[in-house]
From TrEMBL, chain B:
Family per similarity comment: Belongs to the CPA3 antiporters (TC 2.A.63) subunit F family.
Keywords: Antiport, Cell membrane, Ion transport, Membrane, Transmembrane, Transmembrane helix, Transport
Transmembrane segments: 6-24, 33-52, 58-77
Organism (species): Sporosarcina gallistercoris
Compartment list: Cell membrane
Protein name in the entry: Na(+)/H(+) antiporter subunit F1
Coiled-coil segments on the chain, per record: none
Taxonomy of the source species: Bacteria, Bacillati, Bacillota, Bacilli, Bacillales
InterPro entries in the record: MrpF/PhaF-like (IPR007208)
Chief site of localization: membrane
Topology of the protein relative to the lipid bilayer: Multi-pass membrane protein
Pfam hit, one: MrpF_PhaF
Length: 140, 93
């Protein structure tokens, strides 16, 4: 049976980038405003799920050639490494440090090490959710 | 102004209850789908009115997030109704 998905595929190609941009915004807004790694990861998962709905599993796997199980490992390594790195500086586990830097384009910016932890959470959420959906989502 | 916003909140809440009835005992699946989409829109309006009541801008991101998630849910439900399968393994079969 020939499938006719032109409207859904054209919409998904545009909407994927809008949702990805919003997920990046909500990921970087996470420290002082609502948001953070978990919600950003869920939104990225939603964007990829929209691609999966419009196209199919093999096309998306060819477009995003990641092994999402390894993405989970990288995220866990980032999070636990950031949390355990505080022990090296003789402060308790999970202590986070921050400082003000004068970056060329952004001006006076406050950089936190909690950001690295958050990006680890982001990678874990994206990897786990996409792995679950790719495992149970495909029909026979 | 406060009274107006609270009255509209109550009206939206009552209409949400009416839509829940359609979700629970809708005769067919498209009825439930449209009712769930309507519940998403009502959640968005409740959050917008609450952000006026609490006088904050932090809920604006939540509105966009619920809209995106409701859109993806509606698309997947309608693809399930239309095609029978949500995610295909290969389109060029």
């Amino acid at each position: 049976m020939k499938k006719n998905n032109v409207i859904l595929q054209t919409t998904a190609k545009v909407t994927f980038f809008i949702i990805s941009l919003f997920s990046i915004h909500i990921f970087f807004a996470g420290h002082f405003a609502p948001g953070g790694g978990f919600v950003g990861g869920l939104l990225t998962t939603g964007a990829i799920v929209l691609l999966l709905l419009a196209f199919d599993l093999e096309t998306v796997q060819a477009t995003l050639p990641f092994n999402f199980t390894i993405v989970i490992g990288i995220g866990l390594l980032l999070s636990l490494g950031t949390a355990a790195g505080a022990i090296l500086f003789n402060v308790p586990f999970f202590t986070h440090a921050f400082a003000h830097f004068d970056l060329p384009l952004f001006g006076d910016t406050e950089l936190h090490t909690a950001m690295i932890f958050d990006s680890g959470v982001y990678l874990v959420v994206v990897g786990a959710a996409i792995t679950i959906i790719q495992s149970i989502g495909g029909d026979e | 102004m406060k009274i107006f916003i609270w009255i509209s909140l109550i009206i939206i809440f009552l209409s949400m209850l009416g839509t829940l009835v359609r979700v629970f005992k809708g005769p067919s699946t498209p009825d439930r789908l449209i009712a769930l989409d309507g519940i998403g829109v009502m959640l968005i309006s409740i959050i917008a009115l609450l952000s006026i009541v609490f006088d904050t801008i932090f809920f604006i991101d939540v509105i966009l997030l619920i809209a995106i998630m409701s859109f993806i849910g509606t698309v997947s439900f309608s693809k399930f109704i239309e095609k029978g399968a949500i995610i295909d393994r290969d389109t060029h079969r």
